[in-house]
Structures are given as structure tokens and as C-alpha cells.
Amino acid sequence: GQMIAYKVLSAANATVSRGKKQGGSRRAVVTCCPSVVNAHLMASSLLNGLVLNGSVESVEDKGVVINFGLQSCELRGFLPSTALPQFVNMETLIHGQVLLIRIQHLSPIGKVGRVINVSAIPEVENLDERIVEKLHLNMLMPGTILLAEPIQSTAKGVYVELGNGVKGFIRKQHLPPRQRRDLSKLIRSIRVVVMFCEQNSRMLVLSAHPDIVALSKPQKRNTFEGIAIGDKVLCEVNEVDRFGNIHFDLILDNAPKGSLVSAYATKSHLQSANERDAYKPGSVHQVRVISYRLVERQLVVSNKREIFAQKMVSLVDAVPGEKIRAKIESIKANGLGVKVYDRISAFIPIVHIADKQFTRIEKHYSKGQVLDCRILEVDALKRRLILTSKPSLLNSSLKLIKEYSAENVGAVTLGYVRAKHENGGLLIGFYGGVRAYMFPKEAARLGEVKLGYTIQVNVQSVDVEKQRMLVTVADPSLTADTVVLRSSAFMEGKDVPLCYSATITGNSQVVSGAKRGQRLDLNVHLGKKLGGTVQTSMAVELLSDTLDPLVDTLADCFKVGSKIPQVTVLSEKGGIIKVSSKRFVIDWLQRHPRIHSMDDLSKGLLVCGTVTQRHAEMGYFVELAGGSALVAPARFIVYSAEEDPQNEVQIGQTVLARVSSIDIERKRFSLILNPPLCYELDDGENWCSLGLRLLEYTIADWEWCAANLIGGKKLPSLGASVDVTLVLPLNDALTLEWSDEKLRGYARKGNFPERKYTRGETLKALLLDVVLPSCELEFYIFDEEKESTSHSAKTKKGHTKRKKVELCSEVEVCVAAVKRDFIATVTVEDSFERAVIYLPSRFHPNIVTPSPPTGRLECGAVCKVMVKQLCGSTLIGLAEGDLAFATALLSAKMKTKQDLKKKKKRDTDSTSKRVKPFMVYPAKVVGPWKRGQESACAIELELPGGILGRLHGSELDESLLENERYPIGAFLREKTAKSIYVKVISFGSIKEITSPKVDLSKPTKKRSNDDNRIITSFVRVAECTMRKWKMAEEKKKQSLLGYQQHYVHGELVTVFVKKPLIGGILQVEASPITAGVIQKQSLGEGNLTLNPTDTDSALIDAAFEPGEVMKARVVGVSTAKNRRRSRQQKCLELTVVGSSNEVKPDERVMGRVINITQSPTSVVFALANSQRAVITPTGVSDRYGHALED
């Protein structure tokens, strides 16, 4: 609100053409420096009562020395402390500070000394009357106060006389609001202040508003009767101008005489603006404040319905952290320019557009698209909002940090990496410009992070005065693979219970850079002695002992307020307890003595824990159960250099481990995880007991999840017999619907009888599995009428009725579904009723079954099963041979190095017999394909027995192809030197050129010219795949599982870049047997860019890199026959853009120059739709003779 005089240095000179800014500045450049503003003044020009800018030169005991910046003399002003305004304190004045100064007590003779008296309260007196008698316009300066006599009133304002014939005009909005109704009554003299003047010009702007005339009172201008932007007020119509704009008077209870603040609304901000009778003078309306006019002391208001419904109307009332919707106005290289409510400018930086950083945002976003955003902060310099549209920040339910407050200490929140310090520390950003620092040692736990990555942090300390804050990583599961995470132990003591009850309060998503995790928010009831109810969260991996999560997502999954019967505390980190509801862990703690510290450990002791992280060098880290927070490295004992895929565990998995070594002094110990060494038989148990227990806990956890789903859906128990309705019959599956809850499901081929089905018929089914929380059901269909007829015929011949499957029943079953955590079988004996019996798929917690599992039982296999126990109404059993299988697996003696060498030799001798087509094998990832002809589109594998394998990029998992731009590089970064499971789909051969190796220890007849001889050899290659549907396919057909042989015109295929763009053609390949080309004009504008230095020149080629994946459409197929092998080599002609056969007039097309003719002179272009276009010199430029040179 402080008033100051300024001088315009340069005017706004921005030019706009076709909606694009061409150059210049959108704002005028001004200065308030006294030496510039007062440059035209001399000592003789100073008058008694003249107001001008002055800067503080020094602060003395009784006042302040003021410098006016006059170049003609060394003139200073002395400002007594009694002449300072209320908002200025001598102790806070600094050198160079500019104030509005009034000259006073000058000698009437006109002599000016070296020091003159001044005052910083200009409104106390007017310009000297003796000077007014000789007044002319060049004497005036902005801020000078005079007494004006009204001469004539008009509809727009009042003409006044200042003295000596100098006249001026006061606009209506610059008059006091109480006098604007009838300007003809303004007959008395009125005080005015000069707002604008120019030397040697008749331009003069005056203001008579009392709040403006009070120059030294900023409090008169920095508030508008306590009304803020966004407030709703009542106004009375004062006047409607000829443009339809309306001037209002405020209706306030505390201002009976009328307020000095008025309101103004343009026609575009009025509801029903075209109705003349709606805004008659004197009518009252409710409006909302959307902006201020400081000099006119007016509120800019609107009464539109959509503005009343807005959360904010300007930058002033923007609340950081608030959710809003923004519309994209422009797409730039550094982010998105958007509009909020079609009037507030905002910007989304490129690192805040999405959690996944895009290189070309124009491919994913378009103008006019509406995005959900949160307000990060307000950019006051550029008058815009800074927003974020990252889903992790939008969907976070954690506390939002908007200010430096001591109440935030201990809070778990979500921030983003704002900057990286040279020492390795991170600057974490929050809302409202709040920032926090993370020490380098703590930041190292996250590994390599990039700017903009979101991280869940825990606030450690806050310094409100210095506005500083320290944070640490909150989620221990999101640490890097090179840092060991350690927590503190939970409360120790004999009275501390093993388990507690918990209540679900919600869910949250944890994001740390590229790592993500889902957590279940809980209230754990520890009891009064331990502090009552404690808030914490549990990772989805700690919910159950299953390998695959019981639920696909926690969003909209469990009901708030659902009870978890038992949870156990694992450790404590920063005041946050880590809990788990794993039934196997809780059962182990109840069966075995609790471990409180290192003193309870001994070498050879069998312990239970959960895998917390995978270390790049030390293997795995396991946290022991029981609340001791003891963490130790764990590994599998392997003597072979080849890694066994079964010797792997996953994060969050329950494991049994054996203590292999202890160092009491250093407080360290280590564990081994080999299942044969981590097993103990209790009384009455056999080698299958752990498998049965794991399966029982899996079914119990599923039943709990099904009973606590949002929406209260009542699902049948596993193995239940239900009636379903056929929705759609397919060749390999039946789409079904369970009518009780209108839930969809399916039955795989082999799980329903082979016959003709009709839509809408009712079938009898057995429930095998359910996907939560989507409630997608998997069924086994059996023909009840046919079976009952067959059984009745047998009954007449003397057979008994069908028996119900009970405990200890031995029945013949057929495998219907094989999962990582269980195997579902269905009875097929005629003497028993149809029922589902579940078998364990693993017999030890440390075993990780592959996906899909391969081993002792496959879908469709028939075997004998013994029912061992019941879990509710679900049957659990063991297959014939399971006991022998588990005994051989868990009681096997560890192999020595000699045994492994012998086995490796036997495997080498029979390499050709081990690997067969259409079978799943473990394979070691060697690296990118460098055998024969090097290719960035394939991966080299090593199959059992040293067989060479090739995994082409087109055979990678579908999710990797969709989410990664360079899927092969991403796959190699994660899987190099590791083992994976692949299926062999075919065998081929490659040609390699090698040089003969000469044994110089033996006589040789090699001649000198033999050195240049080249030997060509053919190497057998196993073509492999990792596609899920191919891995699960049971049919062994080359036409089904092999590489695609036939392509249809218009088909959309996935291709990989072989070589960069050369000669206007991009070489790609869809598979090792199918190549392709994309001509430059078929790449589209998204892959070609304009030359920034010359927009009229040719388009610049995009930087395609080998291995990049693209989606292209087939426009042609050519077949070339190899003369030597009589083998056809396919080459596809592809396009990235959609092309039409017809080119319409005035249509903008892209073409590639293919020929230039001299007579007649023309340029021939090839278009994307394979048509040709010709351009003549007259279509290039006006200079026909030099057209082709241009």
C-alpha cells in the first residue's frame, strides 16, 4: 500500500501475430530511483510543498539524511524523526530505501541551502499558495497535493482549476464514492493528488479519493474493508455505463454513511448481462470478489454462477495443496501451460506432469485436454500458479505439508525431489514453497533418484524461525539394493504380548522415485499399558504368507473399520511400528521361544522372519519375527557358478532360516536359506506339514479378504457348488455370470465339457479361484444331467449312491488349476460327488514356485488324492506321491563340489537331449545379442547344457513393451546375469565366421596363405518367449507359438528399430524372420521436428536408436526368395501415421523429395499414402529462377 513515484523507461512493446508472441516485453519497464525520476529538476526547481522521491543516505540520532539524486548540486534533505510516517521505523531504515518526501520551510526568497527540511507525511499540507498563483504544469511532480476548484461536471467526471489558469480533469472513479451519485452537487474545493504528469506536456491525471490522498498511510490502501478475494458481498447498483459495465456501492453494516470502497463488474462477468431490467440503479445483488483495483479503490466482482462455484478466483486466494482441474493451453518443451477456470494462468513443469517422465510430452497430451492437478505454489513474479498432475501426489491420503510448523514433527508425508546437492543430499519440496533437507547418508538409501521423483518421508525436526526442516525416508521397503536398512527393537519385556488387534482406516500408495508400493493404514490397539491405539501402515506384502498378493490393488478394496484379528510387531523406525498379519509368522511365534536380542541366538538355531530387501552384493536381508528388529544377511549355499532360479525369494516373503554364524562383539550374524537345512519335524508331523499349513493359512486369509470387501459382496467359499449363467461361449473359454451377485467369471478350456452351448443357459459349476477386489470368478463346469443319468443307470445295476467327500477319503481327481500358492483339483470318480480339493503347490516357505508353476502336476493330470483336513468348508489334501516328493526335496543331502562337477559333465554330454521345443526351462541372461549378425533387438540366453538361446524383443512380456520405450535395455538392466524362465518355441541356426585354431604343439602343414582363410560354421539357436499367454498355452503347435508368418494389410504390429534413419528410410524388424522399412514421410510429425534456426527448411530427422519399440501399421508385404536356400524372406512396408487414399484440396500433407526434373522443372514428392506429388517453381517462391535453390 505504500505510495511511490516512478518514471517509465520503456513502454510495453510485445507484438502478437496469430496467437503467438513475436518478441518484446508485455510490461513497461519503470524505475523509482531518485536520480532518474528527479533528473530534470534543479535546486531552483524545488518548491515549498513539492513532493518527490528521496532515498535514505544515512540515519542520524534525530532524523534521517535524504538524497534527492540531483546532478546539478550536492543538495540533501533532513527528515526529522517526528516527520516519519507510522509505518516507518528509524531502526529498520536501510541505506538506499526510497520514500515519498515533501519539501517544506523553504525560504520565500527562493534561496536554497545545502540542506533543506523535508517531511515524509505529504498529506499534512498542500502546495504553497504563493506557488499556486504562479503555477504551470512543469512545476508538478507525482504525489503533489493541491486544492482544486470544480468548474464543470460531466457524466464521466469533473473539470477543476488548480490555479493560474491550470486546469485538470478528475475521472468519476477517482472521486470519493459518496460524491459519485450526483456530480452537480460537487461545488466546494476538493484536495487532489497528482497521479501522472509529463514535462512539456498537457497530460495530467488527478485523484481525489481520500484513501489515495493519504499518501503516508498504507493501511488505507492495503485492505478493502476487510474483504478478501473470493469473498461474497452484497452490492447496490450505482451506474450502468454505455458498454454495459456496472459500478456498485458496497452494502456494509459498519459503514452507515457509505464505504470509500466501491465495486465494479464488466459485462462479461455478469449473469444475464443482456437483460436490461436485471441491473437497474438501486437494485441489490450478491457478487463475488475476483480482483482488486488498488488506485481506484475498487473491487472487481462477478455474479456468474460458475464463478460462485469455483474454489478460487485469483492467485491471491489460491490454497497450496488444493485439488483443481486445469485445461491445457500450450505444450512446451519444459512443461504444459494451462488455464484454471479459463482465466487463471498456471504452469505444470515437465517433472510434475506424471510419475513417469516423458521425453516427448506432445505424444501424450493435446491442447484442450483437461487434467486433475494440485496447487504446488504461487509464482508471484510471473503471476501464475505452479501445479502438479503426478498421480502419486494427487491420490496421496497422507498429511499435506504447507508451512513450517512444529506440529509436523513425526508426520509421514509425500514430497518430491526439488534439487540435488553436490554432497549427495536432497532438497525435498512440499506445498506452498516449503522445503526440507535430507542428509546424504539418508539419501543414499534411495539409490539413484532424479528430479521430480516423489518420496515418502518422515519429518524429523522443524525450525520455524529459520524455516528449515529435516526429513528421512519413511518407508523401509523402498531402499536401494546397496544399503542395509536397520530399525530399532519394539518394547521388550515378558508382559509384552505377541499379537494385537487392528482396525483398517484406509490405504495409501508409497512412491519413491521409480519404486512404488501399496500400504494398508491401520490403528493397532496395543492396550493402555503400551500407549493405547497407535496409527501405522502395513505393506501389502506383509498382509499374507502367499507368494502372489491376495488383492491386486488396495484402492477401493477393504471396508474402513474392518477388524484384523491378529497382527504382530516386527520392529520400530522413527516412532512408526512395522506390523504384519502373516498367520505363519504368528503361529511360529506361538510355537517357539521369542527372540528378544542377540543373546537369544545360537549357531544352528532355526528362526522365522520376512525378507526386507535384496542386496546387490550380500544377497538378501531377513528381519526376524518377534519385535527384536534383528536383521541379518541370508543366502543360499550354491557351489555352482550357475544360479538356480529356485534359490530366489521375493521381498516380503516369509522364510525359515538357520543361523550359520554369530559375532557377538560386532553384533552381527548370518543366515542360510536352503530348505533341506531349514526344516525341523515336530511330533506327529511329516515332510508335508509345512505345505499343508501354508495352504490352510492361504485359504483363511482369502476368506477374511472376501468378508471385508467394500460393497458387502457375498462370495461363495472356495470349492462351493453354484449355478451360473452362460454369457458368451468362446473356443477356449466360457464367459459366465453368477446370478446371485451379478459377478462375471470364466471357465478355461479343459474345465468344461466339450459340447455345444447356448447363451443364457444355466450350468452347474464349482468355484476354483477368485481375483480380488474385482471379484472375477474362475469356475469348473460339469454336466449334472448327463452325470446323473449315467449314475442312475449304474445304480440300477447295483451300484450305491454317490458318497460325499469327507476327511481321510481317497478319491481320483483331475487337476483343474495350478497357481503359485495352491493346486485346485476336481473329483472325477463316479462313486463320489463332485467337489474341489486343494493341494499345496510348495512344501516349504523358502520355495518360490515359478509363474506359471511347472513340476509335479499340470492341468489335466489325473491322480489319487487323500483328504487331510478342512478349512471351513474347503477341502485340503495331498496327492499320491506328494509325501515322497516332499521327503526327497527337504531331506536331500547338500551336494558337494565333486557331485556338481559330475552332474555338469553328464549334462554337457546330453545337451541335445535336454532342451525340447514347447517346454519351459530356466535360462541365464547373458546380454545383448552379439552372435552372428549383432542386433539390438534381441537378447542372448544360456539354456541348460550350454544351449544358445535367443529372446527377441517381440517375445518379451506385454507390460514391458507397453510401458518402456527401450524394453530390451530395461530388461537387461534388471535381469543381466540372472536366471529367468522361458519357453522354447522353435529351433533355428545362425551363421558365424570363425578363424581356425592351430595347435602349434603338434606338426602342422599349414601354409602362409592359409592365414586369410575364413571358416563359416552354423550354430543351433533355440528361439524363446516370455509372453504370458504363450507360457500358459498347453497346445504344442508351431503355428500358434512360433513367430508370426502372415501379415494382413492394415494390421498394427510391434516393431523394433534396427538402424538409425539412413537415406530417408528407417529399418525395423518385427521378428528375426520378418524385417520392415518405414519411409521418412510415413513417420508423422510426432517423429520429425522443425529446424529451430530456419522453419522453412526441411524437417529434421528424429534421433531413433536401435532397440526402440514402435507401433506401426502394415501397408505392404514383399517376399524375396533366397536363391541358395529357396527360402522366402518377408519385408514389411510400414507406416506410423494413418493415411487415406484420397488427398483433399487444401489438406496439409508430408512428403519426401525423391526426384528433381529439369525439363520441365519440378520436384517430385512421395506421400505417406504411396501417392506422388509434384511442385513447380511457381509454388515455391516469387523468384522462379532461384526456386529450386531455396
From TrEMBL:
GO terms for biological process: rRNA processing. This is S1 motif domain-containing protein. It comes from the Eukaryota. Residues 49-121, 143-209, 321-390, 410-474, 604-674 form the S1 motif domain. One of its GO terms (cellular component) is small-subunit processome. One of its GO terms (molecular function) is RNA binding. SMART domains: S1.
